[in-house]
Amino acid sequence: MKYTIEEIQEKLRKKFKGNRFIHTLGVEYTSVCLAMKYGADLEKAEYAGLLHDCAKQLPEKKLLQICKDNGEEISEMEASNPFLLHGKAGACLSKEKFGIEDAEILNAIRFHTIGRPAMSLVEKIVFVADYIEPNRKKAAHLEELRKMAFEDLDETVLAILEQTLDYLEESGKEIDRHTIVTRDYYKERLRSSDHE
Asked: Which domain holds residue 92?
């Protein structure tokens, strides 16, 4: 890696405002804890957890530009809600500014918000860690999800996706079809006998 964890922490500490840095450290910590539990690569989980929101505070125009410049696919929903692109833009910045080349780390950053079918172990860990990290207070059923995360990762991914879809539906917000596709994939995976 081009930079150590400590060097990246220092760069992000200077860049982030408010609670964003505290959340970032929480996701980094939780990612490592889950990686230890499930036997994932600790270094990959830590880098991905630390960098997952590195593009979060950029203006929407900048997020769009970064994604366009780097050939990232932009859905209609993302084009009309560019804040959703912070994962994809974050993967681009992690490569460009922080020298991250590992595809699994970059994908964990890229898909940490809406997930995707057939996520790798590190991708699932960061997806879950972002939702359950100790500083998050607002999401429903957090206590239950935090316990579940250390018992069955796929079950937790599905629960988070279902909770997200319920929230979006109840609040009348637009739903990204990728979230539905991902939810359906994990629902089917858990039903199948292949689930570990």
From this structure: 5-191
